[in-house]
Amino acid sequence: MEKQQVTSFEMHNNEIIVAIKCLEKENEVGFDYFLEFTPISNELEKIATDQNQMHDSFYGAFDELNERFPWHDFQPVDIDEDFSEYVADLLVEKINDSNRLFRNAQKKEFEEILGIHLKTREVEVKTGIFSIDVESLNKVTEYDYQEFVDSYAQEIGQKFKLQSTVERWETFNAESFEFVGNIEIAGNSVILKDSDNDIRYILAADKYKFTVDPLTYSAEKWEWVSVRK
Description:
By secondary structure, the protein is an alpha+beta fold. It contains 4 helices and 9 strands; from the N terminus they run E-E-E-H-E-H-H-E-H-E-E-E-E. A 5-stranded antiparallel sheet has the order 8-7-6-5-9. A 4-stranded antiparallel sheet has the order 3-2-1-4. It is elongated. It starts with 5 loop residues before the first strand and ends with a strand.
């Protein structure tokens, strides 16, 4: 008896229908998941044969789809509710990484099929570049003396004795500067690179104080919340 195929996910555009289907494994417990392409246009006949890779789970099949196709530009038709949250996570990744406008019609279609509400919020995005304050360090030694009070010391003219010494580092402005780029540690050296990854400074780690703050910018990012009851 031929095993029945079950559709776990389906979407289309004007040229092709893309689906993730599953079959019971041969002589094993569980299912095999695979992509199926049904061309609407004759020009896409070839892609319909490229659907032989089997996956042990829906997630593996969808990861293949996610890598190969701009599926977020398609019109969703149906999805197994068990996998809707996984698809929703990848959907917001796709549209946040895309430079294309996410149309309101698309938004409503995905919200209805996935049982979610899509919304945007302002977030701070790291640029990968840093503001770096570089301050020169100067070693300062402080001495603490104690006054002699015994008569012998006064007779020989010794008024003070060294009680303790304290060494500390202070910053000073003589060689301090600000830099925008990246910072790397290499042994006892600190390497400062510009935004093109070119080396600009190689400094001794024990001679400078480095204060590093990441540069960020504000951006509107998509996120989703479930509306299923």
